[in-house]
């Protein structure tokens, strides 16, 4: 990855706006720039647009939406912003938090009205840290459907998506971006001039050296994000003098089916499930959140744990395509009794029975355990049981390039790179400096809301120029 003077480039074509990356952030940015009146080109390194979006559950948190109002859910941007700041212990930039909280709902309603994305709000369980039901998803509750629908919308809007185009060089002049150079699978190289550039190529989760440098506790963990997330945006930004923030911030997940490699919804925990290690013992407060639970699971013998839940919770989890795939793959174990469950999972039967008995007693009493998990109002587990062996994983990084209120990249000296924008994992998000600051959905929140803001600003700049 490099930054070079524009005088050294021979541009093969010109496009007002170029977007690097065809995940949710890039496609939302492209649609927004096109709506603002600019022609747009999306460059994607993969054969088809997928990215980290396709590996997610495709859920976007948004307050004050029409879907919430129809369901009788009271929520607003101020309440959402307070939840984000509370989860991240006040570390994120309050102005960025406020911007994303205000933009998320209108962005989803725009995608529904202008591009036909059929969002609905999840009402049968609430993710940790959210004080209202505000997770919105498409019918299959899958990131694959989200990115496919966004790609279809871009194609319908006449936005070209050039796949298998790996951007290698940003060309600059007088502190501004003048174009990009990219390589094709046959080894040929092309360059496209542009008036505005949007970096939507996510973070650095796929770069082992960068992960080891910034998130050493997960350096050896399963990486469940897209391997193409190699930190190009950060490296280009640093070469341009851009400011970065919270590079150690990340989203982990303590619930990836092992060895199947399928994401298991955290509803298995929030609805009353627990995690035990190979000794049949609980080891943490699982309810804090799935991001920080990744490191907790990895510290257990073998780097795995078993999530125990029941048929009622499985019914809730089944709305997610990933969970249905896990069932089809045989990752979900069923057992009529705790003893049968222990035998099937090779856990100590007495220890597992004692653990489950203690949890159910806490639920009846409305007590709090030694880890600090409060069980008041948490539904009991009832046979037949369900369980899945899981491991911890790194999903994506949350730190990145600092951006202003128009998603323009901010320089270390306080100014801006005038025509460079960043969204999604390329930009510093709102999760702070560690795993515990990640509030469910923060990744797609940044992708959709900043993609909308940055794409609209880039499009207006190019159309006005």
CATH architecture of the largest domain: 3-Layer(bba) Sandwich
**What summary fits the major beta sheet?**
9 strands, mixed
Task: Give me the CATH fold name of the largest domain.
Answer: FAD/NAD(P)-binding domain
Q: What's the helical proportion of residues?
A: 25-40%
Shape: elongated
Counting DSSP E segments of at least 2 residues, the number of strands comes to 21
In CATH, the homologous superfamily of the largest domain goes by the name FAD/NAD(P)-binding domain
Number of helices: 14
Number of domains: 2
Q: Measured on Cα atoms, how large is the radius of gyration?
A: 22 Å
**Briefly, what CATH class of the largest domain?**
Alpha Beta
Q: Which class best fits the helix and strand makeup?
A: alpha/beta
Taking pLDDT < 50 over at least 5 consecutive residues as the criterion, the unreliable ranges are none
N- and C-termini, Cα separation: 28 Å
User: Average pLDDT across residues?
Assistant: 96
DSSP strand content: 15-25%
